[in-house]
Queue: 2 jobs
Job 1
Amino acid sequence: QLQLLESGGGLVQAGGSLRLSCAASGRTFSSYAMGWFRQAPGKEREFVIAISWSGGTIRYAASVRGRFTISRDNAKNTVLLQMNSLKPEDTAVYYCAATGSGPGPNQYEYDYWGPGTQVTVSS
């Protein structure tokens, strides 16, 4: 099994930045593509951004293009989500997830999930 734990959530003003971390333990971290999803109150969980096991392929939602970046350090079993130019609509619980498939937007292809971390962006 692979265990994931997010950290770094908090409250920021619109236009600000925040960095989320996802620490992995268990199975070999480098064997998995890693993704970030988010879920706002009353809404379905949505894809944000993902990175391949090698770091060579990145997929992202149009809503975060130019604002969010993803990176990973396989030696440290960690994936990062750098969020810049945050907007109130970015407010959600952010989840880290792992998949044995490619870094796609389909949540059902992800096998492991962290418990989530809250990100709140004020107007």
Job 2
Amino acid sequence: QVHLAESGGGSVQAGGSLTLSCEASSILSSSVMAWFRQGPGKEREFVALIRWRGRGTLYADSVKGRFTIAQDNAKNTVSLRMTSLKPEDTAVYYCARGSHYATSHMEYPFWGQGTQVTVAS
């Protein structure tokens, strides 16, 4: 069983920054690690992903240039550095592990419990 644990959420003013971290019990070299988010009354949406081998990344247009996904192979963690935060970034952020370079949440069988990010205007 794969266990993912997110941390680093919180409340911040618009324009501020936060860094989320996800620690995984195991990550295969073929894994793709991703961040998704789900705002109030919204569907879960893709934020960013990183291919564990090769470190290729992909971002949603809404966060491109503001968010950065990174990996730490030694610690089996993936981080999401979020800058220039906007109120519309308010959501529960989830870490996920899959094996396909995909933006659909349906492609990710393993999920963390989520961490709340609230951006005040």
